[in-house]
């Protein structure tokens, strides 16, 4: 019984954290050999901010059929590092046709008016890679 109570409390804390922020990401479509960026924003709920002092790390995984320019990002890599809702442009290059996924593992501190809590969140982003368009026939 002593082990169940902490587990239930930990699961409840995780569930409460989910409605206090959102990892917003856009799926992308790109041709084989092309490059694109996926925009990922850590959007806190009203009254919350992503800590400017605590660590913020993104780690990317997966990406078969994709070449990831970087696998790790920090707050300094955000479009505006001072923003309360940092946005990252995740650069990728398509190497094979098909639907491919990128797994994003985000770690940051989410702060309210009095307290900050460590957050670990995961998100999967889909990248649709198409074959290049055939060149027009010669005249």
Topology:
Blueprint: H1 4-18, E1 21-25, E2 28-31, E3 35-44, E4 49-50, E5 57-62, E6 66-68, E7 72-74, E8 87-94, E9 98-111, E10 116-130
Parallel strand pairs: 2-10
Antiparallel strand pairs: 1-3, 3-8, 4-9, 5-7, 5-9, 6-8, 9-10
Report what the structure shows.
There is one protein chain. This protein has 1 helix and 10 strands; from the N terminus they run αββββββββββ. The protein is mainly beta. The strands form 2 sheets. Strands 2, 4, 5, 7, 9 and 10 form a 6-stranded mixed sheet that branches. A 4-stranded antiparallel sheet has the order 1-3-8-6, with no helix packed on it. The chain has one domain (21-130): Immunoglobulin-like. A hairpin with a 4-residue loop joins strand 9 and strand 10.
DSSP strand count: 10
- Give helix and strand order, one letter per element, not per position: HEEEEEEEEEE
Distance, first to last CA: 80 Å
Number of domains: 1
Helical segment tally? 1
Question: What's the name of the CATH homologous superfamily?
Answer: Immunoglobulins
Major β-sheet profile: 6 strands, mixed
The average pLDDT value, as a whole number, equals 85
Beta content comes to over 45%
The first-level CATH class name? Mainly Beta
| Rg calc | 19 Å
Question: What is the level-2 CATH architecture name?
Answer: Sandwich
The oligomeric state is: single chain
């Amino acid at each position: 019984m002593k082990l169940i109570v902490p587990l239930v409390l930990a699961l409840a804390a995780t569930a409460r954290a989910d409605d206090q922020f959102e990892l917003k990401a856009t799926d992308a479509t790109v041709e084989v050999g092309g490059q694109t960026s996926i925009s990922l924003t850590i959007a806190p709920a009203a009254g919350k901010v992503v800590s400017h002092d605590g660590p913020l790390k993104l780690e990317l995984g997966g990406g078969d059929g994709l070449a990831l320019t970087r696998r790790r990002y920090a707050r300094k890599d955000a479009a505006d590092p001072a923003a309360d809702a940092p946005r990252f442009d995740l650069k990728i290059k398509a190497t094979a046709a098909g639907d491919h996924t990128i797994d994003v593992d985000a770690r940051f501190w989410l702060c309210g008016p009095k307290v900050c809590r460590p957050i670990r969140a995961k998100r999967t982003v889909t990248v649709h890679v198409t074959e290049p368009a055939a060149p027009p026939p010669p005249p």
